[in-house]
Predict the 3D structure of the following.
Amino acid sequence: MPQNKAKFLIPAVGAALVLGGIATATYLFLKGGPSGTISDALGSAKLVPDEAIMTAYISTDPKLWSNLENFGTPEAQKLITQGLEDFKKDLTKDSDLSYEKDLKPWLGGVMFAVLPPNPVQPTQSAPQERSEPNLLMVVGVKDKLAALDFSKKLKSQKDVETKEIDYKGETITETIENKGAPSYSAILNDRVVFAPNKENVQQAIDTYKGEASFASKPGADKLFNHNVDLQNTLVKVYVPDYGNTVKQLLTTNSSSQIPPQTLEQLKQVKSMIGAIGVDDVGIRMKATANLDPQLTEYQYPNSPSNLVNLFPVDTILSANGKGLKGVWSAFVKQSETNPELNQALQQTRTQLQAINIDLDKDIFGWMDGEFALALIPANQGVLANTGFGAALVFDTSDRQTTEATFDKINNIAQNQLPISIQKGKVGDKDVTKWEFPGQGALVTQGWLDNDTVFMAVGDSVAQTVATPTNPSLKDSDPFKTIAGSLQQPNSGYFYLNMDLSMDIFDRFAALQPIPKEARTVLNSIRGVGMTANNPNKEISQFEFVLALKRKSE
């Protein structure tokens, strides 16, 4: 079996086991075993060598996966169903095996473990060939009688050769299908371990017989017992040593030298756990990172998200947060230990100084409050062809510096662009406009109150932000369903309304048509929501939701 088949998740389960073989029928005479739920992950981790740098556990409980059947347009459901059927047929092609009859009844939860990569010797044709990651699969056997039937059927298939190898009293089965590359498996109690190389299976047997396991790594017990607070958890990822894991993955997937400063920054994250589940909104992902407080440069503040109230209900996209000044200060401090980053920063500072702009003071120095960005539908003036405009809003405690910065930017624009700078009003707000002759205002800027400044691209967008009406974006059903379902308090929201985004995509369809299958899937998505939370210098939390349309919509 080609080694790259082991790099996939769900597909690898069926493909690997169909080709891998389960030869020891004497073991498979009792019914019962791991159910395939997330609670079985710890048992599988006890067979993974402690050298593993990360693991991912996939539940095979059909009740959990059936929750996805509540979502999707009829067209999307049909497309996905057909794709699953094609996948199942592909797993058992060229054989008389059936996924539904022969695999599904006994297949328990699946754990994938990433072991340190084996170095690849350079060759004359590829002197910098990259090393390949080592993968080990641990698959639960929830019905041993069904697995016995599968084993018998598999051994009877044509073009399948098997050989049994004894290792410390356990049997490793080498399986070769259609004279391809061999794969290796072994039955250890109520689980099967599988790998594209014999050494990884031997390591799993050593672990089974008492050597240190992934479950015994320092901090691993906290990860496996950590409650991610997700309904219907389908997948969990465990990374007990995040810095070392990313370092090894970067080394594996890059032929260039990783700067030591980058590797040092990775040490800020001690461990990480992530999970994917499905709830009433759609597919949700949560991750929690445990940080080293001594190395954490900046703690992101919570945002009240008040500025979102300035945007209309039909906002296409919005993003908000708080304290860009602090983020920038942390970035500058970080660059002091990174020569390449520091050089790029100094070049940017020099280029802006040439036009009388101080990057630290004029751009980020006054951005100490909440900020928000939005894309808003607009079909007039210079935006008639694009269909949307943009708005930026900032709260600041330093109005004097803010006004001085905008004056500098206005002078630069007037001297270098074919525009005129005009003073005017939008509602009762005094504003400054960049106007193109005969096309109206491209950019409008002004103050909404004593400490809130805004910039808008497009006349109608400026009108919307400067004279907000109720209900606002925060009151809209899509925003409440998507962003409103995310954890609170938080550092701000990212929100995308997919239906409104599709209207924009359609405007450019003549330039880049959306494939039919992609459109079918996109039409079944309501939107995307994302947030983060940094309650202290030891914890960072992230949440993402892919909101799906229910069948009834």
Q: What stands out?
A: Residues 74-91 form the longest helix (18 residues). The chain is about 30% helix and 30% strand. The CA atoms of residues 32 and 505 lie 51 Å apart. The chain has a mean pLDDT of 83.
